[in-house]
Amino acid sequence: MKVFVYQPYKNFGLFGNRKIIEDFVKNNDANLFVFPELYISGYFLRDEIYNVSLSRDDEFFDPLIKIAKEKKTNIIFGFPEKENGFLYNSAMIIDENGNKKVYRKMHLPNFGPFEEYLYFKPGNELVYFDTSFGRVGVEICYDIFFPFITEHLAMNGVNYIVNISASPVTSRSLFELLIPARAVENTVFFIYNNWAGTQRNLVFWGGSTIVSPRGKIIKKAGYIKEEIINEELNIEEIKVARAFRPVLRDNRNRQL
What we know:
Elements: E1 2-7, H1 13-26, E2 32-34, H2 49-52, H3 62-71, E3 74-83, E4 86-94, E5 100-104, H4 116-119, E6 127-131, E7 134-140, H5 147-155, E8 160-165, H6 172-186, E9 189-194, E10 196-199, E11 202-205, E12 209-211, E13 217-220, E14 227-232, H7 236-244, H8 247-250
Parallel strand pairs: 1-2, 2-3, 7-8, 8-9
Antiparallel strand pairs: 1-14, 3-4, 4-5, 6-7, 9-12, 10-11, 12-13
């Protein structure tokens, strides 16, 4: 499966960010395109988030559905979702057939510079989807600190974990520990996409990373700059990793 990870530096607003996705997908060939947390709107908007939130069925997404179907590709990006008077920090998944799925961030940070509980309601359901190249599961940023999420996805046949993020420089060292750890614990490819640059008073460190099922960093973007990374991922590596370290087979959570 060929993956493209777009690490942005600037927020161009709803229609500007959508145009970037459209052009990027049109001009590149891949099976999976990944954009970061709340990419459609930008991350640190405070009360402005209400003005840019979207229903999952909003016609705003129609051009992206069209391009996904035309190119037979899968696209993941973050957006502020509204439903029944609530807002969610969500990931939109558009698969190669133009079908949509939405994952709502389960763990909302509300410490230090983070204020997500002031604006969002947490989700309560894990989400994965099937592609021609294997099963893909989705997490959002702080979810990585809760290993049961990646574990549950892997035990349900997920081969590729995508974590879309808006992690500031103060969190960099922790994420750089956890990204390869989650890959090794579950013998999956781990694809991490983070914002770079400054929004209000937050500086995002970038460092988007693709990690192998045995914890090898395959590709890594630079810090605090726009960058694109891509890689062809071979699902056979998962079989090899699980033969050498059968953590899913031996996981006693199956018995609890």
